[in-house]
Amino acid sequence: MNLTPKQQEIVNFIDGPLLVTAGPGSGKTRVLTQRIINIVQSKNARVLALTFSNKAAKEIQERIEEDLYEKVEIGTIHSFCLEIVLNKGNQIGLPDNMTIIEDYNDKLELLDQAIKSLSLELNIKFVSDKIKKYKQNLILPEMISKTEEEQDIILIYETYNNILFANRVLDFDDILFYAYRILIEKPRIAKNYMRYYKYLMVDEAQDLNLTQYRVIKALTQNFSNIMMVGDSSQSIYGFNGSDSKIMTENFVKDFHPREIQLRENFRSSANIIKAAKIIQPNTVSKSVYPLKGLLQINNFVNEESEAEWIVSKIEYLLKFGSDNVDGPISYADIAILGRNKYLFKNLEKLMSEKEIPFFDAGSSTRLNAESEEIAIFENGLKVIANKYDELSYSKVVNMVGRKKNEEMLNDLLFNDEAGDDINRAVFKKIIECWQIVSNDIDNFGKAINDMKKSIQSEKSLSDNLRFLIENDLNLWLTRWQMYCKESIVGDRNLSRFLNNVSLGKHFNNHSEGVSLLTVHGSKGLEYSIVFVLGLNQGTFPDYRAKTLSQLQEERNNMFVAITRAKRECYLSYVNYKMMPWGDLKKQQISEYLNDLTSRGNISINYID
């Protein structure tokens, strides 16, 4: 498909700051990719493209020819900042080879150690939230006002950081925090980065928070070849501090960019775009498709009948197709969206009974083994990658039921002592795998395959445990294969691999089945058929949304949900809901559906 004049104008814009407002389905990713290719080919310059999801980064990368790879770096803001911290952190006194704490409970455990070491008694969640807020606002312990109220928090903050250093680990908030410090305290590093990368592009810029923007500003002092692309109507991460005004106001004030709007929606049919504009009148989107498509509002007595109808409709579409969709409809063409995950309970039960495959297409997969044996394996890998990681070592020895040893790494690699709860044959294979990986990371895949073969023939395992362990090992194989595609033999590093996994970078989202997604998880995805369920006041919009900005974000959520649909969108609500304490409670229709019925003349189908 040829580019439109506006799209071509963006692709041809080479030097100087640029702000692109791009509505849903406007070809944003295609334009961004073509501009990258044009810059590399016409200027022979390196480009840095920052996104907010690994999926978006992968999509851009897949559209760029291999011979251009060495000129283009594509990744999330967090993955780029982690590279800065790991490569340049020693210049502000950070230890080498740091790894990420990805589990919130692990962070709380280290915080608990800090609190107890100071003989203080404070609520750990309260302390965690305070320190998180300080780090997200780039505030060091010594920068906090030493009031009586804050004195204990300052001490805990300092002690917690010292424990992190001793274990050579980072919590998630440290990534941006230290990247910013490095760029500000060592401005030559920022200058060198932007000498190397002549162009910077920021995708989904409406999701920037102030800390991320401050990192970008620190990176781009006296630098003008920066592009931001986004859509304020799709800003849905306010709970993480994101603010679309950073793109539309701060960036405009600081960089004075050329501003171009992409209005045409090439994804969704006319009725879907009409409904989306009612929900979000300020959107720049306009329909270019002559196909009307379908937007339907359905009312049900309760959640059970809502789930039954959706499943029945899916069965019908799979069997007979739709006039609005060319060709047969597959599972991959269908998504069911809800404001929160708990709304899928009845659907999951019914779809399992009907043998309709489904999966959570928006979940990221990090270090989350289903079997205890592979959880032991994962924590051991962390210690092999970082011999100072006492937290992960403690978890291993606790799970295998033995005492700690000062020689943590040797204890893992050469001690097969384990309690009765751990299968000894599997544990011995885990130790063999650790030894192989410790000697040569490039043999990681072979070690996992050897363990798989051993598990398959191990008679002491129950079928259920064998199934769980094999699933966990297959997931590690997939991660490793993805890591190998972007690295070369001899240059691979276990800590880098584990950090990438912790950031969700090596997540292969190709499961078969109908996609079940929260609205936040659906961002950037598209489907021929979309069901949005649970559209009751208090559920969607969420009852916790009180302020004007929170209410606007909820409306943006609804806009995002509708515009995931290409051809058909089914919106539903219920009259009664069973509450967790057992009472049946009458429900109100969502204000969004009231808007669609009153302003869009869309009728409601009352289904028994």
Automatic annotation (TrEMBL):
Lineage: superkingdom: Bacteria
Signal peptide, first to last residue: none
Residues in UvrD-like helicase ATP-binding domain copies: 1-269
In short, the EC number is 5.6.2.4
What GO annotations for molecular function exist for this entry? 3'-5' DNA helicase activity; ATP binding; DNA binding; hydrolase activity
Catalysed reaction, written as an equation: Couples ATP hydrolysis with the unwinding of duplex DNA by translocating in the 3'-5' direction; ATP + H2O = ADP + phosphate + H(+)
Binding locations of ATP: A22, G23, P24, G25, S26, G27, K28, T29
Please report which protein family the annotation says this sequence is part of.
Answer: Belongs to the helicase family. UvrD subfamily.
**How is this protein named in the record?**
DNA 3'-5' helicase
